[in-house]
């Protein structure tokens, strides 16, 4: 961000907002046609050094990340509709009072946008901009290469490696967490998030080794892993209970009933049956959500790594030019990417790229 923009920002009259999600919104008119609005708005965000996380159908979203300890994050929404530009800034860090920061973001964007709009006030400048935008959208300046980086040799996707590895880590985590729980080394939420992270982190390397990226199947393994982990956890607690307190075991069912009747407790405190059931549900749900969160990130990164940038851009170019799926595959075959698995990796990478953008949003 230039010094002039920073200095102008200091002169803006702040309007404080209060609420669960403090926000500020303002609408202004524009002479820009919808065909170039997104291009100009995106340039404004770049000039302000705000990270654009969404840009589609003349709607843009960007995030402003504060710097330093105690800094806040704001999300800015910009939308074009019928010759008007609506700009809104919202706080995203749970603050109740924004101290005028949202109003500054909105007014600063509008100021820079109006300056940019003046650069295209003549018909010649506007026509040049429209031609430039159209060229970029159609990838007219893209130079089709004579060849592409060739695919690396990879193993055939092996689901059994994922399943077996997931089973092993789940059993190991079950024994470990069962022991820790028996020793009352348990911190709610942190405990479950930690288990979820370890499950996902293990699957990260398993899917790379097995070259397996089917999300639904990975999700099933993850869900099964959570169930196995806490089942083994309970069995481990039962075994420790037998060793410590009982030479004549009544059975796992009686132990489970005993646990329910006595409820959930820490130290000398007991919070009852309801608390125990809530803890059991939380363990499963929170663990799965946390694990799935990390698994998606690992999967997206892996799928993008498998396809060179040159191949990615070449495929996008074919799609932009309106070719059918079969025609795109034929072009990839000419470039050496001829196997079904290799082509599937490319299309998965494109899906992952879009998912990564949505995730960032």
Describe this structure in words.
Helix content is 61%, strand content 11%. With 361 residues, the chain is an alpha+beta fold. The protein has three domains: 3-137, 2-Layer Sandwich (TATA-Binding Protein), CATH 3.30.310.80; 159-305, no CATH class; 309-360. The longest helix has 34 residues, at 272-305. The mean pLDDT is 84.
**Could you give the distance between the termini?**
22 Å
Order of strands, main sheet, comes to 1-5-4-3-2
Largest sheet: 5 strands, antiparallel
Can you count the beta strands? 7
Radius of gyration: 28 Å
- Mean residue pLDDT: 84
Q: Supply the helix-strand structural class.
A: alpha+beta
What's the helix-strand series? HEHEEEEHHHHHHEEHHHH
- Helical coverage, percent range: 55-70%
Which band does the percent of strand residues land in? 5-15%
Give the overall form: flat
